[in-house]
Write a structure and sequence with these properties.
Blueprint (H helix, E strand, L loop, with lengths): L2 E9 L7 E4 L4 E5 L6 H13 L8 H4 L6 E10 L2 E10 L2 E7 L2 E2 L3 H4 L5 E4 L5 H4 L2 H12 L4 H22 L7 H41 L5 E6 L7 H7 L1 H7 L10 E6 L2 E2 H4 L2 H23 L4 E5 L7 H14 L4 E5 L2 H10 L4 E7 L2 E2 L1
Parallel strand pairs: 3-13, 3-14, 8-12, 12-13
Antiparallel strand pairs: 1-2, 1-4, 4-5, 5-6, 6-7, 9-10, 10-11, 14-15
Length: 365
C-alpha cells in the first residue's frame, strides 16, 4: 500500500526556519553544509510518525531558542485517503498528536500508523556499541507493527522499574510474596516480548544476508545470533534462581532487559574484526532488512530516512545502493547529503521521481 508524505509545515522546530514544503512520492534529497538543518528536516518527518525525535528525546530541547513551542504538521497520503497530522509541544502546554482533527488519547495509539525507518551515521553504535541500542532497534521496529508488543514492553519496563526500586531500598529480608508478584508480572509480559523478538530476528535473517551481499560487493559470511536468558530455560525459574543474587546486588540481573544480538562476520565479532566499510555495509543491510520486515508485517511500505549514509562510499557504490533501495523499499525516501553534485549525478543515471532541496541556515533556498 503506497504511503507518502505530501506536505510538511514547520514552526519553531530546532534550528529550522518557519516553512512549508511539498515532496515527491519518490526520492527527496536535502543537500547543504553540515549544520544547515538537513538532519533536522529528516527528524521532523520522523517525529510525525513516531511522536518523538530520533536524536533528542527531550521535547523542551527541540523547541527553537527563544520560543515557547514547536509545531509540525504533515499531510500523508495512503491510497485514496489523506491524513493531516499534527505534533505540537509547548513549554506551558502538554504535547499532543492529532490526525484529521482527532487527538490521540495515547502516543502509543499513533505509533505504526505511518511506519518510518531511519539510518544515520550514529547508528554504527548498533554494530559497535552496547546492547541497549540493539534492544531499542528491535523495539522501534516491532512496536510499529504490533500493538500487543508495545503494551507488553511498557508493562514489563514499568514492573522492572518497581522491582528494582524495591530491591534498591531493601533494608531487611525481601518480602517473598511481593517478589513472586513482581516475577509473575515480568514473566507474563516477558514471554510475549521474547517470542516477538525471536520471530522478528528470524524474519529479517534471510533479507539481511541477501542485502549485505548486494551492498557490500564482498563475499564474507555474515550472521547474527539472538542472545537472551530465556534461551536457557523457563523465565519464572530463572528469576527464582537469581533472587538471592538480585537481593545482594540490589537489581534484577536476568530478563528481557539484558537481551542482545551478537553480530558475526566469518564467525568473528563484527565490532572487533570488520573494517569501517564492512561495519557500515552491515548496518545498512540490517536497517534495510528491517524496512522489509515493516512492509511485510504492516502491509505498508515504510518511509525511509537516510541521513548522510553516502559518506566515504564511491560513486559506483552509491548508485548501486540507490538502485537497491528502489528494489527493496520502493516507497518514499528522504535523504541528506553534503555533496549536491553527487546527488545530481546519481539521479541523472537513476531514473526515478525525485526532488533536490538545497538547505541553508535552516531553510530551503
Amino acid at each position: 500500500m503506497a504511503l507518502y508524505l505530501h506536505k510538511l509545515s514547520i514552526l519553531n522546530y530546532k534550528n529550522l526556519q518557519p516553512q512549508e514544503l511539498e515532496f515527491s512520492e519518490g526520492f527527496n534529497c536535502f543537500t547543504g553544509k553540515n549544520g544547515s538543518g538537513k538532519t533536522n528536516l529528516l527528524d521532523a518527518v520522523y517525529m510525525l510518525g513516531l511522536t518523538r525525535s530520533y536524536f533528542n528525546h527531550s521535547d523542551a530541547d527541540n523547541v527553537q531558542h527563544h520560543e515557547d513551542f514547536y509545531r509540525l504538521c504533515g499531510t500523508f497520503h495512503e491510497a485514496e485517503n489523506q491524513y493531516v497530522t499534527e505534533v505540537a509541544y509547548g513549554k506551558k502546554q502538554r504535547k499532543f498528536v492529532r490526525v484529521n482533527d482527532e487527538k490521540a488519547k495515547k502516543f502509543s495509539d499513533h505509533i505504526g500508523r505511518f511506519p518510518i525507518l531511519i539510518i544515520t551515521p550514529d547508528d554504527i553504535h548498533l554494530v559497535k556499541g552496547y546492547s541497549e541500542g540493539r534492544r531499542a532497534m528491535m523495539d522501534q521496529v516491532i512496536c510499529q507493527t504490533d500493538r500487543f508488543y508495545l503494551e507488553a514492553l511498557g508493562h514489563y519496563q514499568k514492573v522492572l522499574k518497581q522491582r528494582n526500586q524495591y530491591l534498591k531500598n531493601l533494608e531487611a529480608n525481601a518480602d517473598e510474596d511481593l517478589m513472586d508478584s513482581y516475577d509473575l508480572q515480568l514473566v507474563n509480559s516477558g514471554k510475549l516480548i521474547y517470542e516477538k523478538r525471536s520471530a522478528f530476528l528470524e524474519g529479517i535473517k534471510a533479507p539481511f544476508e541477501a542485502i549485505y551481499k548486494a551492498v557490500s560487493e564482498d563475499n564474507e559470511s555474515v550472521e547474527f545470533i539472538y542472545e537472551s536468558h530465556l534461551n536457557d530455560g523457563d523465565f519464572i525459574e530463572i528469576l527464582k534462581n537469581s533472587r538471592q543474587k538480585d537481593v545482594i546486588t540490589r537489581r534484577t540481573l536476568y530478563g528481557l532487559h539484558k537481551d542482545d544480538i551478537r553480530f558475526e562476520m566469518n564467525q568473528y565479532a563484527v565490532k572487533k574484526m570488520a573494517s569501517q566499510g564492512q561495519q557500515k555495509s552491515f548496518l545498512i543491510a540490517l536497517k534495510l532488512a528491517c524496512a522489509e520486515y515493516l512492509t511485510k508485517s504492516s502491509g505498508k511500505k515504510p518511509i525511509l530516512l537516510l541521513d548522510d549514509i553516502f559518506d566515504k562510499l564511491d560513486q559506483n557504490r552509491v548508485e548501486a545502493l540507490v538502485r537497491f533501495i528502489l528494489n527493496v523499499n520502493a516507497g518514499q525516501v528522504f535523504l541528506s547529503d553534503t555533496d549536491y553534485g553527487r546527488i545530481k549525478r546519481i539521479f541523472e543515471k537513476v531514473k526515478v521521481p525525485h526532488r533536490i532541496f538545497e538547505v541553508s541556515e535552516g531553510k530551503i533556498i
